[in-house]
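Run log, item B.
One chain of 331 residues. Sequence copied directly from the ordering sheet:
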Amino acid sequence: MPYTELLSRTGRILWRHKSLSLLGLGYVIGGGIIGLIMQIWSATNPMSAFFRTMTSAPEPERFLFDQFTTWTQPLNLVLAVVAIFAYTLLVWILAAISEASLIQAVAAETAGRPLQLSGLLRAAWHSLGRLIAIDTLVYFPLFLVSLAILLISSGGLIGFILYVSAGSVTQEWLIIGGMAIWLLLMVLFFASFLIGLVTVFIRQLAFRAAVLNDLPLRPAIRHAVTLFRRHWLQMLAVLLLIYAISQVIGMLVGFLAMPAQMFNMFRIMQLSSGPTPPDPFIFLEQPLLVHVWMILVTLAGLAVSTLTTTFSSVFWTLCYQHWDRHDTDRD
């Protein structure tokens, strides 16, 4: 089956079952909610008020130090760590359930079964443990490479500073050492890119093997690796296609923010050309209309991200079914 047919079939499924977009919301709700909260917070708590309070304080440095010590109290740090962990875990679970539900929806559509959100969510909850385990196992090599990059870059920087401060190394050896560290980091960055790319493919395939074929953890990953070896070039084309679609749609959403940006630019030019110097912090303040517009743009971006993510998940599932059937018929 050509991939153009899979694309059109994806569009037909989403058009016929518009409620699937609610499942795709679980993918993007984490980042979308954070962006929405930040927009609302900036509208109700302008940064200019903080800076004006700081500059009007008798000792601005003391004001900043007091703010820092308040936020870094042990109890505040513990609460922040717990909140971040709980939020990350909740977003992770929501994303896994959303993806599993969308995969189940494609399977039901292919088999001609009726789609019910409650049934899809129950089936997704049944496979949640395996999906979390797949995520943990598949992303572990990428974590190791990222850790190696962090250790080498920080260790190289500290060593470079110590050698320079000691003055016991010639300029030639400093250049050679710096180039060696730079080359090693480039190799690690390239390796992390390749590992990350393979990780994305294996994860997409293993999720669908666990949900569609009801495979346990290790058989699902082995099946994903087998499919990847046979169809990696097609998977790369699918990834590039989805990336191109998301970039085009993201640019269209970005155009929605242009009126607010143009308004701010003209406002800054008008304030700067006045006879008296404007308050330096007034540039941090925006009219209520701009805040409302940016909140609407954030909501529009959340809706578009939901649609594109849902489209991507359904398309990957149809591609997986196509590749899996192809290999089964060949074997």
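Observations after the first pass:
- The chain has a mean pLDDT of 78.
- The longest helix spans residues 288-330.
Flagged for discussion on Thursday.
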